[in-house]
UniProtKB/TrEMBL annotation:
<feature type="domain" description="Dihydrodipicolinate reductase N-terminal">
    <location>
        <begin position="10"/>
        <end position="133"/>
    </location>
</feature>
<dbReference type="InterPro" id="IPR022664">
    <property type="entry name" value="DapB_N_CS"/>
</dbReference>
<keyword id="KW-0220">Diaminopimelate biosynthesis</keyword>
<feature type="active site" description="Proton donor/acceptor">
    <location>
        <position position="164"/>
    </location>
</feature>
<dbReference type="InterPro" id="IPR036291">
    <property type="entry name" value="NAD(P)-bd_dom_sf"/>
</dbReference>
<feature type="active site" description="Proton donor">
    <location>
        <position position="168"/>
    </location>
</feature>
<comment type="function">
    <text>Catalyzes the conversion of 4-hydroxy-tetrahydrodipicolinate (HTPA) to tetrahydrodipicolinate.</text>
</comment>
<feature type="binding site">
    <location>
        <position position="165"/>
    </location>
    <ligand>
        <name>(S)-2,3,4,5-tetrahydrodipicolinate</name>
    </ligand>
</feature>
<feature type="domain" description="Dihydrodipicolinate reductase C-terminal">
    <location>
        <begin position="136"/>
        <end position="273"/>
    </location>
</feature>
<feature type="binding site">
    <location>
        <position position="42"/>
    </location>
    <ligand>
        <name>NAD(+)</name>
    </ligand>
</feature>
<dbReference type="GO" id="GO:0016726">
    <property type="term" value="F:oxidoreductase activity, acting on CH or CH2 groups, NAD or NADP as acceptor"/>
</dbReference>
<keyword id="KW-0521">NADP</keyword>
<dbReference type="GO" id="GO:0019877">
    <property type="term" value="P:diaminopimelate biosynthetic process"/>
</dbReference>
<dbReference type="GO" id="GO:0050661">
    <property type="term" value="F:NADP binding"/>
</dbReference>
<dbReference type="GO" id="GO:0051287">
    <property type="term" value="F:NAD binding"/>
</dbReference>
<dbReference type="InterPro" id="IPR000846">
    <property type="entry name" value="DapB_N"/>
</dbReference>
<feature type="binding site">
    <location>
        <begin position="106"/>
        <end position="108"/>
    </location>
    <ligand>
        <name>NAD(+)</name>
    </ligand>
</feature>
Length: 277
């Protein structure tokens, strides 16, 4: 191929095409050189079935009809971008593995059992999964790990605060958990054994080494996260504020392009962004 010829754009599919992230992804793929929308999937019975994906996303006709035949779409594309629900994502991971395509997973709220199934599917497909696909949050997680390591649990207590729009169905957010994992990693402890996800009533004093979570929901907030390191007489707050869903969509498209031609396995956005040590 000569240098002047444009490379063939990577064929992407969006599942959950009618959702908040699905529509944002369709719009952003349409603006991204090197990527093309080649499939759009919604659940059986959705009012979006049979409609044009571009019309749903408000970017005009793209010639891609929304269907509920996920496998039929997956065999004709190179990657699928998935921001849906845990149950749907587990099913899509099995189909993406059958079709041997890249599966980018932004869905949050997966149980340990869901994650084990996704891990199994990653034996046959390139799976990139993250609770937050934005550059800013992934960089923040690196800073949180450093801060948690430098400021030991004898003196500094870690609390994670998040706020999202009123439609969000899972808590704590995937991002809050990702930041909690980063803090736990920095302290060389397991998050599972040290997290306090709810406080109510007469809780007694805070346990040393705990990583606490607090969840707020309301309005149209796209996603706010703060990691607070509270010490004797001083407090450090590391924060990220998402102003627009396009930051997540851009990250997901970048992940799909990065995943092309890679060995099957489970990867994170830190791998995609080159932020893994
Ligand atoms: N990692 C990241 O960077 C980000 C992650 N997220 C996560 O992405 C997920 C989706 O968020 P959001 O877009 O706001 O949610 P929405 O509810 O707006 O969108 C989800 C879409 O998935 C569809 N869906 C559900 N089940 C299926 C199925 N079996 N097959 C096909 N489509 C299906 C829904 O259809 P219907 O409504 O008809 O049920 C809906 O259109 C959440 O888990 C959220 O936390 C969100 C933003 C960023
Ligand atoms: O549901 C959302 O909207 C978001 N979900 C992700 C999360 O659970 O952290 C990412 C982002 O904050 C928006």
């Amino acid at each position: 191929m000569s240098a002047e010829q444009p490379a063939t754009p990577m064929k992407l599919a969006v599942v959950g095409a009618g959702g908040r992230m699905g529509q944002t992804l369709i719009r952003l793929i349409n603006e991204t050189p090197g990527a093309v929308l080649a499939g759009a999937v919604e659940r059986a019975g959705s009012p979006h079935i049979g409609r044009d994906a571009g019309e749903i996303a408000g970017v005009g006709t793209l010639g891609v009809e929304v269907t509920d035949d996920a496998l039929g779409v997956f065999v004709g594309v190179e990657a699928v971008l998935d921001f849906t629900t845990p149950g749907a994502t587990v099913e899509f991971s099995e189909l993406a593995a059958q079709a041997r395509i890249v599966h980018v997973i932004g869905t949050t709220g997966c149980s340990a059992e869901d994650d084990a199934k996704i891990h199994a599917a990653a034996r046959h497909a390139v799976v990139i999964k993250s609770g937050n696909m934005s550059l800013g949050v992934n960089l923040l997680s690196v800073l949180v790990k450093q801060a948690a390591k430098a400021l030991g649990s004898d003196d500094f207590d870690i609390e994670i605060l998040e706020m999202h729009h009123k439609h969000k169905v899972d808590a704590p957010s995937g991002t809050a958990l990702l930041l909690g994992e980063a803090a736990a990693d920095g302290r060389d402890i397991g998050l599972g054994q040290h997290s306090v996800r709810v406080r109510d009533g007469h809780t007694g004093p805070r346990e040393a080494g705990a990583i606490g979570f607090a969840t707020l929901r309301g309005g149209s907030v796209v996603g706010d996260h703060s990691v607070i390191l509270a010490g004797p007489g001083e407090r450090i707050t590391l924060s990220h504020h998402a102003e627009d869903r396009s930051i997540f969509a851009r990250g997901a498209i970048k992940a799909a392009l990065w995943g092309k031609g890679r060995k099957p396995g489970l990867y994170s956005m830190l791998d995609v962004l080159g932020l893994n040590p």
